Amino acid sequence: MNEPAPQSAATARRYWPDLLAAAILLLGACILAGRIWRFPFDDELITLGAAERSKSAAELVSFFGHGGDIHPPLSFLLFFFLHRLGWTEAAMRLCSIAMTALALLLFQFLTLRTIAQRAAGEVRPATRVIAILLFGLCPLAIGQGDAIRWYPLFAILFALFVILYLSSGSAAIRLCSAIPLGLAASTNFIAALLVGPLLIYRYGLQRAWRPAFELVYWLVFLIFAALGLWSAYSIVTEKFSHVMAVEFGSGHLRALAADALGFFGGDAIGVSQAWAVLPALVIAVFAVVAAVDRKRAANPMHLLLLTFAAVLPMVLTGFGKPRSFLYLAPVLAALVTLFLDRQTSKAPAWLALVALVLIPSVGAVANIEHGNAPFKRNAAIPYQQILDFIRLNARGAVLTVSTDPVVVWVLRHQHAASKNCVSRFLENKQCFDADRHYDTVFSITGHSNLSANPPIMRNLEAALTRVTSGKQKVAEMSAGFDRDAAIKSRLTGVPLDPEILSIAVYR
Question: Are residue 422 and residue 341 in the same domain, yes or no?
C-alpha cells in the first residue's frame, strides 16, 4: 500500500470497470430493495425536522452547542444546506447512497491494489468478480446506505482517512488524512474508535513518531474536529446520563447479538432468519484471522483490524445499533475479498464460500420491503396502505392521533394548509382544544418508545376516549406484520403484538 502515486493511478485506470460495475450493482440492489424513493424512518425525521425548522446554519449549530442532540452537527449541516437548495428527500437519499458507494469503491480500489502488490501486479479475474459482488452487494450499504442520517457521511470520511493515510508514501498526503478524521469527529463521537486504533498503529506498530509531523497532524485534526468537541462538551455537561441511558441501554449479550445480526444482515434480516448470516459471520472471522501479519507489525491491514476490533468494547457496554457501523462494512468486504482471493488459488470450494457470503445480501434485498420478519419493526410498516386507508375513510374535519412518528410527519406535510389536525400522542395540544370539532377521528396505535410510560399511555387513552365520544368505530385495519414478535418479546421482555400498527376510524 505504499507504492508511488503514478502506479496507483495506473491501477485505478486498470480497474475502473470493476468500480463502475460495483457502483451499478449497489444502486440496482438499493432500488430493488425499495430504498431511496420511500417513506422516511423514525431517526430520519430528526434530521429532516432540524433542517426544516432551522432558519440559518448558525442557529442549527447553536442548537447542538447547547446539548440539543446527542450527535455532533456536521451531518445535520449537510442536509440543512441540501434542504435550503430545494432538494427533495429522495434527492438527499441519492446523495447519501453516493457517499456510501464512494466509500465502498475507495476500499474496493485499495483491496485490488493490495492484491496486485502481493500477486506481482495481476489480480485474477475470479477475484475481480468476487470484489464486485462483495462491494456491490454489501448488505448494510443496501439497508442503510441511503439514510438521511450521519452514517453515510461518516463512512466516506472514514474511507478518505484510510485511503490518504495508507495509500501514499508522501508525508504531505498522509498529513491530509487528519482532515477527514477531524470531520468524522464533527459527524459522530464514534470517531473516537478511529483515533485509538490510529494511535496504536502509528506509535505502537509503525513506530513512526516524528515530533514536527505529529504536532501539525493533531493540530489539523483538532481544527476540523472543533464542532464535535464543542458538541461533546455540551453533552457531557448537560445531558451525559441521558445519553448513556439512551445509547447504552441494552444488555451486553443482547447488544452483541443485535449488532452481529444487523451488521451482517443489513439491518433487514429478522431474528428467525439469523441462520442466514451465520456462514458469512464465520467466514468473516476466518478472514480477520488470516489478515493478521505475524511477521510485519506495520502491515497496513493491521490499522483496519484495529479499527474493526475497537467496536467490541462499545458493543459489550450495551450499544445495540448496528447501522452506526456502516463505515466498517467496506472494511469487512475488503477483508473477506482478500481471504477469498487466497482460496481461489487453492481449491474449487471458493465458489461455495462466495455463495455463503452473499446469502445475507440476497436476504436484505428481499426482506427490506417485502419481508414479514423485519430486523426493525417499523421498517415493515406499509405507510402507503395507511395513507390510502385514511384518504378513503376521511369525512369532513379530520383528527389523526398516532403513536408512529412517520405517519404524523407525512400527514402534517400533506395537510399543512387544511383544517385537519395531526398529533403524535398528545404533542400537538391545539388538536385537543375543547372548541375543536371533528367529523372523523383516526386512532393509529402500536408499540413505541413511549409505550412503557404509564402516565403518557393513560393520557393518550383518556384523550382518545374524549375525542371519540358520541362517535362509533366504523372501520379498522392492521398495518404491518412481524412474525418474530413472540421471539422478540421473549428476548427483550417487551410485549409485542404481531400486528405492528392498528388503525381505527370513528365517525
Answer: no
Domain count, the chain: 2
pLDDT in tens, 72-101: 999 999 999 999 999 999 999 999 999 999
Are 179 and 273 within one domain? yes
One domain for residues 167 and 274: yes
Q: Which amino acid is at 257?
A: A
Whole domain around residue 491: which residue ranges?
A: 381-506
Kindly give, in sequence order, each residue whose CB lies less than 8 Å from that of residue 5, ignoring residues fewer than 6 positions away. 168, 170
Q: Quick one: cell of 236? A: 457531557
**Those residues with Cβ within 8 angstroms of residue 448's Cβ, 6 or more apart along the chain or in another chain:** 403, 404
Q: For residue range 166-190, what is the model confidence (pLDDT) as tens digits?
A: 987 788 999 999 999 999 999 999 9
Tell me the pLDDT of the chain averaged across its residues.
Answer: 90
63 neighbors 52 (Cβ within 8 angstroms): no
* Pick from 85, 86, 81, 92: nearest CA to 40: 92
What DSSP line would sit under 12-49, residue for residue? HHHHHHHHHHHHHHHHHHHHHTT-SSSPPPHHHHHHHH
Q: How much is the pLDDT for 416?
A: 62
Asked if pLDDT for residue 8 goes beyond 60, the answer is no
- Give the three cell numbers for residue 382: 406499509
Residues 78 and 118 in one domain: yes
The pLDDT tens digits of the residues spanning 269-307 come to 999 999 999 999 999 999 999 999 999 999 999 999 999
Nearest to 213 by CA among 158, 172, 166, 168: 172
387 with 368, same domain: the answer is: no
Specify the pairing of strand 398-402 against strand 421-424: parallel
Ramachandran bin of 174, using left for φ above 0, alpha for ψ from -120 to 50, beta for the remaining angles: alpha
Give me the torsion for CA of 224, 214, 189, 182, rounded to 10°: 20
For residues 202 and 348, state if they share a domain. yes
> Residues 362, 390: one domain?
no
